[in-house]
Amino acid sequence: MPSRTFLIPLFVALAAILLACQPIPQPFRPDGKPVYRATPGPRTLLVVDPIVDSPSGFHARLAEALQKREIPAVSSGEVANRYHVRGRIVAAPPTRPDSELVIVWTLFDGQGQEVVTRDSRYLVDGVGWVTAEGNELEKVARRAAYEIDSLIGGGEAPARAEDYEIVVTDVAGAPGDGDRALAHAMTLHLRRLGLTVVDSAAAESMKVAADVTVAPFRKGYERVQIVWRLNDENGRELGVVRQDNVLPAGTLDGAWGDIAFAAAEGGAEGIADLIRTAAAGNSGQ
């Protein structure tokens, strides 16, 4: 599989995808990202039932996320002889960052017969989930839509990004505490995206590494570039995520703090897309 490149400024994301002609993502958020499709199945209309104990409006956001994947979905009303998807929360997150949310998704056919069930785990900001503030509901809805897409695909389940082990190996070249802070933040964001991140590399692990360069830009400013690389278990490069920004000189000489968290969020979105591409390619083999 040819390598892919994403160009993502630290705070304004634009992607240049070299593998094929794909839609250009919109700034930083993943709404415009490529769609990775499961085998076509019952896609005429899907009814999203209300999800017990979820924040108000979550099932409507899920329907919207499914529509963005070109799946006709509605979030209200009784529609006869149509497939339904129903979610049941079996582990609600406590109100703290990086809490685990577990939802059991069940797909029913037009006659109300259960077709398939899957347990899904999401690492979420507990406060954002409970209060429906920020974009936490949208993040979970996007990931759930991807999983439901595979549920309605029919036939053997395709390989999923979540099936791969990932390890963040090295971040090098950053001033201050940037190497450690970026590696930690990338690990957190990949887990929040539902990916399986391990603490030490195994033979089958995909590996994420980054190189950071800081250079003078103009008087009083520095140009910061971060290049994230994703390699498969054989060391073959699957793709690159590039980030670029200009900051006041010396900003990153000490603790990176929220800058590391914000930068890694954009990088993680690009890395997750590369892993999904690899999963989709392996499913087609």
TrEMBL record:
> Which domain of life does this protein belong to?
Bacteria
Protein name listed in UniProt = Lipoprotein
Tell me the organism.
Oceanibacterium hippocampi
